[in-house]
Design brief:
This protein has 490 residues and is an alpha/beta fold. It has helices at 66-73, 90-100, 112-121, 129-136, 147-162, 180-193, 215-226, 235-239, 243-255, 281-286, 306-315, 331-342, 378-393, 399-412; strands at residues 2-12, 17-26, 29-34, 43-46, 51-54, 56-58, 77-82, 105-108, 110-111, 168-170, 197-199, 230-232, 260-264, 269-273, 294-296, 320-324, 347-348, 435-438, 459-464, 467-471, 474-475. Strands 1, 2, 3, 4, 5, 18, 19, 20 and 21 form a nine-stranded mixed beta sheet that branches. Strands 9-10-11-12-13-17 form a six-stranded parallel beta sheet. Strands 6-7-8 form a three-stranded parallel beta sheet. This is Amidohydrolase 3 domain-containing protein.
Length: 490
């Protein structure tokens, strides 16, 4: 199918082009970009007055459903990857996504947490996000490993890389007391295999002086020692009020040649399983937070005190919840969120979470989504909110810079592990026909903490592999063109 997008403002972060042009798509690729293109047999779409750019590549999405990916499509995402946590076994994760169909491209890292859970706690992973959340609250896998255990779970990770995992996802923040040598061993494995790591770092020393090693120092030290490419996930949520020191640590490491990258999202609350190690009442106090900072997603309950928090953690450690780590109403806290997004070369990544309904469903093929679905608003609104804040309101990013942060830079993190990623994040001839067309005056988020499944506003068209998933602002419910992004066997 050939499509000609006529007369839009084309923004290509790969070449630096920003100007009025046409874009011709053919057979899932960008065939040509330029003024006055002639293709009489193509379906012509008038995009005058709109911005046309490469679709957003989300490195950090825990959405493994048609329902969740449709929300992300309306936010401008064309590729949604679960790299921080990953899934295991990787073959099953890819097969199940392909069998169900996806509106967006998808991919997974090798799961450090699942590999450790299999070896240390005899928990067989089943490649699902629900079981993964349950594992997060299980203390049996959070201890340090014996030499034999370390060898065993490193071997599992190596086998997953051989099957095409997109690097190694490391949930260090969920096992914060583990021996630092184990993280270094993962970095050595990643360097040897030529793949990135994607890490939820452990606590900062300002929060917990007894931590074995400061989380931000650990990741830069491992990158410096091993030469591995190491990605620091959601620096906004793990750094909180200490973002100045953390960003300075990362910048120093980068200036010295370490391969450290960073991501952020524009919200002051995170989402996780209520049994996570960092939600233990004593650890919350160390962060300057209280049980009332925790909200159970399914019921909307704001936890009243430490006794209740301990109760819900014991009863259902995998229950999804919100954790308010910054107050978005406070100008100082808003400034900290802005600082994380504005950090040079920080990429935008959502940490999108599944949509849950009270009847237990985590999937729906209905559109609009059935009422009563709960999730974090970042699932539906991360990219549109970032564009509203950084381009429309603050004027700190040009559209070229916005597409560089949302499309180009995240794609380049994957070039070595998955060469097919080299066709993403730009609009050069031969690039993947993954494009977003947005209204620059209207783009904004609509999802809130109380109404989190409201789709973003302003994405007028979205093409995935050349297939229109969004047309004239409306979702095409029959479109499931998503394809796997998979690493080369290592």
């Amino acid at each position: 199918m050939r499509t000609l997008l006529r007369g839009g403002r084309v923004v290509d972060p790969g070449s630096g082009f920003d100007g009025i042009a046409d874009v011709l798509l053919d057979d899932g690729r960008v065939e040509a970009v330029g003024p006055g293109l002639h293709a009489p047999e193509a379906t012509e779409v008038d995009v005058e007055g709109l911005v046309v750019g490469p679709g957003f590549v989300d490195l950090h999405s825990h959405v493994h459903s048609i329902a969740g990916q449709r929300l992300q499509a309306m936010d401008g995402v064309t590729t949604a990857l679960d790299l921080e946590a990953g899934l295991m076994p990787i073959d099953r994760a890819y097969a199940e996504a392909a069998n169900a169909g996806r509106p967006l491209h998808y991919g997974f890292s090798a799961s450090w947490g699942a590999a450790r859970a299999q070896v240390l706690a005899d928990i067989a992973p089943d490649a699902s996000i629900d079981s993964g959340l349950a594992i997060l609250g299980n203390p049996r896998w959070q201890r340090s490993s014996s030499k034999a255990e370390l060898t065993a779970w490193l071997s599992l990770l190596e086998a997953e890389l051989a099957k095409g995992a997109l690097g190694i996802g490391v949930l260090m923040g969920y096992a914060p007391a583990t021996e630092p040598g184990e993280f270094l061993a993962v970095a050595h494995l990643a360097a040897k295999a030529g793949v990135p790591t994607y890490t939820h770092v452990r606590e900062l020393v300002e929060v917990d002086p007894a931590i074995p090693v400061d989380g931000s120092v650990e990741i830069v030290a491992a990158a410096g020692e091993t030469g591995a490419a190491m990605h620091h996930c959601h620096v906004n949520s793990t750094s909180g009020h200490h973002i100045d020191r953390v960003l300075a640590t990362l910048e120093t490491a980068r200036s010295e040649g370490s391969r450290v990258t960073v991501e952020a999202y524009p919200y002051g609350a995170g989402s996780t399983a209520v049994g996570a190690a960092f939600l233990e009442p004593d650890r919350l106090r160390l962060k300057g937070l209280r049980p009332s900072s925790v909200v159970i997603l399914e019921t909307g309950e704001r936890v009243r005190d430490e006794a209740r928090l301990r109760q819900v953690r014991q009863q259902d450690p995998g229950a999804p919840c919100l954790l308010e780590f910054l107050d978005e109403r406070d100008p100082r806290d808003r400034g900290l969120l802005h600082q994380a997004l504005a950090f040079p070369d920080a990429v935008v990544a959502s940490d999108a979470m599944p949509v849950y309904w009270k009847d237990g469903r985590t999937e729906s093929t209905e559109w609009p989504l059935p009422a009563g679905g709960t999730t974090h608003p970042r699932t539906a609104g991360t990219f549109a909110k970032t564009l509203r804040l950084m381009v429309r309101e603050a004027g700190e990013w040009t559209w070229l810079e916005a597409f560089r942060r949302c499309s180009y830079l995240p794609s380049r993190l994957l070039d070595d592990v998955a060469p097919q990623a080299r066709h993403k994040g730009h609009l050069g001839a031969g690039a993947d026909a993954d494009l977003v067309v947005l209204d620059p005056a209207a783009i904004t988020d609509a999802a809130t903490y109380t109404d989190p499944t409201r789709p973003s506003i302003g994405v007028r068209h979205l093409y995935v592999a050349g297939v229109p998933v969004v047309s004239e602002g409306n979702l095409n419910i029959d479109a499931l063109p998503g394809r796997p992004l998979r690493g080369e066997p290592r």
